[in-house]
């Protein structure tokens, strides 16, 4: 190869080029691939690999490389069927390095926690010594890549056991990159990076994460992995109808009422409440799940029976703009008018905790109205409604943010792979009953106050009631935190459940007639300046571990709680 570069005669150089290409084709078996060990033979012969590999791997989703998957599976240790293309660039880049060579990549950060990145995480922690990781999260620092990260790692068995990490904060200017890296990076032990997912945090936060993990049973185990997503209709425009359409279908034929069910989208599920948009699902299960009058018949005969059974629905589905798409869609049952097979239809029609697929803050709600839902909504069938209070708590939001990936704007994705890791601490039946009573109050108040304007003659009453709602939420937060961190809170003389149990709070269903007067009375009692629960909540930020959870950087005697003195003074006697 060196003869070629040293040659100055153009004819001789052309001849050498032809000979080199012919030799390469012979060595590669005329394969249409780029073989580094052939094209850079002198690097591997003398150096056993490159000193440095620098790259920005292409972000190509796995759906676009289906034609390559058979080849990738044979060649890459880090292969999984759902891995995006850049995953293989990491393994390839590391294999091209000499021992102690350095790889530096800018790529997506999704592999830090995604299931498809597990093998790569294991590969890197086993075969390399990490030097630096800068995780930009959803900061828009690069136009061409979402959720970017910079990874610098050295090939070879880990020796120093530590590396520098940095979580880039939103709003920081990339022009201050060097200053930020120097001032905000922290040292982490490589051994804390587990195959299940990488979290970059200082020792205090890592110890807290581990303490929470050990504090109870994983939610997946607690609910026997009964996490379900809503119905994939394959064509919502046909199967999901508004109230006027629902009423018209029933008016056309009363049989339609049998299959029209109240329906939620992910966007309809809020924190503590459901903002029902008066939509309905045409629920016709697959013949795989239910015996219909048409089940087992030939297509033409089956459709005739369907038309006789639900004539109004059949007329709707026969509209030209709907029928063609219904027939072509992939998510369907045995017949085009059926929904895809689902083995948990019965779970929709029971008490459950529901949550959207994307949310900014914990947004779990309780459904006792047997709603059906779309695939942007998830649910856990359970009668243990106290869990809704736990899942909406600040300590669980902190935990979830640290084990999962956020999306643009700091929003969270409710992936079951992460949700199932939430630890459920041991709690007595009395503890659960107290939390469930408070959850009942919050659910009721959220529904009652949702559409009431905070102005005019109702101004003071509504303001007080909203403060009541906020305060009940804060009590739930404090009690849940005590379940996870009893020693840390009790060391600072913060007791909540002990005092709450003394109140003998009635469950919401035990409060007859107008519930507001009773709730206001309970609130006034718990909100009294001398009440130990109020005092504990007001000074809760004085506990160091609480400050970590709430993201408070330093001690500030004037910032102890979400309950401000002006808010306290605004309370009226009733």
Structure description:
With 574 residues, the chain is an alpha+beta fold. The chain has three domains: 34-200, Vaccinia Virus protein VP39 (Rossmann fold), CATH 3.40.50.150; 228-381, no CATH class; 396-569, no CATH class. It contains 27 helices and 21 strands. The strands form six sheets. A six-stranded mixed sheet has the order 1-2-4-3-5-6. A four-stranded antiparallel sheet has the order 8-18-14-16, with no helix packed on it. Strand 19 and strand 20 form a beta hairpin. Helix 13 packs across helix 14 (311-317) and helix 20 runs antiparallel to helix 21. The longest helix is centred in the C-terminal third of the chain and has 26 residues, at 459-484. It is flat, with a radius of gyration of 30 Å. The relative contact order is 0.07.
């Amino acid at each position: 190869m060196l003869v070629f570069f040293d040659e100055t005669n153009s004819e001789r150089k052309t001849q050498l080029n032809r000979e080199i290409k012919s030799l390469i084709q012979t060595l590669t078996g005329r394969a249409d691939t780029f073989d580094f060990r052939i094209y850079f033979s002198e690097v591997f012969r003398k150096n056993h690999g490159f000193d440095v590999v620098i790259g920005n791997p292409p972000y190509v989703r796995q759906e676009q490389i289906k034609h390559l998957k058979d080849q990738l599976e044979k060649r890459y240790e880090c292969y999984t069927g759902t891995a995006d293309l850049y995953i293989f660039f990491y393994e390839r880049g590391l294999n091209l390095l000499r021992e102690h060579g350095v790889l530096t990549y800018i790529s997506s950060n999704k592999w830090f926690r995604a299931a498809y990145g597990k093998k790569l995480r294991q590969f890197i922690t086993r075969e390399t010594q990490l030097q630096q990781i800068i995780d930009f999260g959803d900061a828009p620092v690069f136009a061409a890549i979402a959720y970017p990260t910079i990874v610098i790692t050295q090939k070879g068995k880990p020796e120093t056991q530590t590396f520098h990490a940095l979580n880039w904060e939103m709003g920081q200017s990339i022009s201050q990159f060097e200053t930020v890296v120097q001032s905000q990076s922290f040292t982490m032990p490589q051994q804390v990076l587990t195959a299940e997912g990488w979290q970059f945090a200082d020792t205090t936060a890592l110890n807290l994460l581990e303490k929470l993990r050990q504090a109870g049973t994983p939610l997946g185990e607690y609910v026997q992995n009964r996490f379900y997503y809503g119905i994939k209709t394959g064509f919502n425009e046909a199967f999901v109808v508004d109230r006027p359409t629902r009423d018209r279908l029933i008016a056309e034929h009363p049989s339609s009422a049998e299959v029209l069910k109240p329906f939620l989208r992910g966007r309809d599920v809020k924190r503590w409440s459901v903002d029902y948009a008066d939509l309905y699902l045409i629920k016709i299960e697959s013949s795989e799940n239910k015996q219909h009058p048409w089940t087992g018949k030939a297509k033409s005969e089956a459709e005739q029976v369907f038309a006789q059974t639900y004539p109004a629905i059949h007329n709707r589905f026969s509209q030209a703009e709907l029928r063609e798409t219904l027939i072509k869609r992939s998510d369907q049952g045995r017949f085009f008018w059926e929904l895809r097979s689902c083995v948990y239809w019965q779970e929709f029609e029971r008490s459950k905790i529901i949550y959207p697929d994307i949310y900014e803050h914990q947004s779990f709600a309780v459904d006792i109205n047997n709603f059906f839902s779309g695939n942007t909504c998830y649910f856990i069938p359970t009668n243990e409604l106290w869990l809704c209070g736990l899942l909406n708590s600040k300590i669980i939001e902190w935990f979830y943010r640290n084990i999962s990936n956020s999306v643009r704007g700091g929003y969270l994705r409710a992936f079951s792979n992460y949700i199932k890791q939430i630890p459920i601490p041991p709690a007595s039946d009395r503890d659960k009953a107290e939390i469930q009573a408070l959850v009942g109050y919050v659910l009721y108040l959220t529904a009652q106050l949702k559409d009431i304007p905070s102005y005019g003659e109702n101004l003071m009453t509504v303001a007080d009631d909203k403060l009541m709602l906020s305060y009940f939420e804060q009590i739930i937060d404090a009690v849940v935190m005590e379940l996870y961190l009893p020693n840390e809170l009790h060391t600072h003389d913060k007791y909540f459940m002990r005092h709450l149990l003394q109140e003998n709070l009635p469950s919401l269903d035990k409060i007859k007639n107008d519930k507001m007067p009773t709730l206001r009375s309970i609130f006034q009692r718990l909100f009294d300046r001398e009440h130990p629960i109020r005092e504990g909540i007001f000074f809760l930020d004085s506990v160091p571990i609480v400050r970590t959870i709430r993201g408070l950087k330093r001690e500030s005697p004037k910032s102890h709680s979400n309950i401000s003195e002006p808010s306290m003074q605004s309370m009226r006697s009733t």
